[in-house]
Amino acid sequence: MQEVVSFANKAGKSRIGKHTFLKRKQQLTDWKRYDENGGTYTQKVIAINSFVYEQYCDAKSRLCAVHDINFRAWAIRKARELNLNKFKASKKWLWNFKVSHRIASRKITKVVSRKYKGNCTNIMNRASRFVEETNSIICGYDRDNVFNTDQSGFNYEYVSK
């Protein structure tokens, strides 16, 4: 866009009509305005999305918990930097962002107390025994038929008839 605007400024208005890259006369003034404002609305939203994703990757590399409010705060902060005051990090924007970047939310299923957390050696021993027993059972099944119900959200319920 900047190249077209600078070419039009150098060539003058008499040369604009000879080229087909402008579909209407107003388009050049629109492009000048976009250039002055730092890009179009869509370009700014793309910049916001890339900034938020970079922040997310940085937080995950530091093993920090990232919540929906963090995504929204990062997006609003970047929008203010880009003078995009109309932008609102809505639930719909957040949902679209998470879908496009394949980010899934997990809910807390169990609260751990300090007493439980302090008993790490016993927990690690039990966990290693569980893994050994599970691996011996899994060997008898095809990998496509093995599911991790801890993270899949399956609920088993027996219903009497």
What would a concise description of this structure say?
With 161 residues, the chain is mainly alpha-helical. The protein is built from eight helices and no strands.
Primary descriptors:
161 residues; mainly alpha; 59% helix; HTH CENPB-type domain-containing protein
Largest sheet, in brief, is: none
Q: What is the count of helical runs?
A: 8
| Count of individual beta strands | 0
- CA(first)-CA(last) distance: 69 Å
Strand content: under 5%
Order of helical and strand elements = HHHHHHHH
Low-confidence stretches: none
General form = elongated
Helix vs. strand class: mainly alpha
Roughly how much helix do the residues carry, as a percent range? 55-70%
Question: How would you portray this structure in words?
Answer:
59% of the residues lie in helices and 0% in strands. With 161 residues, the protein is mainly alpha-helical. Helix 1 crosses helix 2 (26-37) and helix 3 (41-61) packs across helix 4. This is HTH CENPB-type domain-containing protein.
List the SSEs and their pairings:
Elements: H1 2-11, H2 26-37, H3 41-61, H4 68-81, H5 91-100, H6 114-118, H7 120-138, H8 149-152
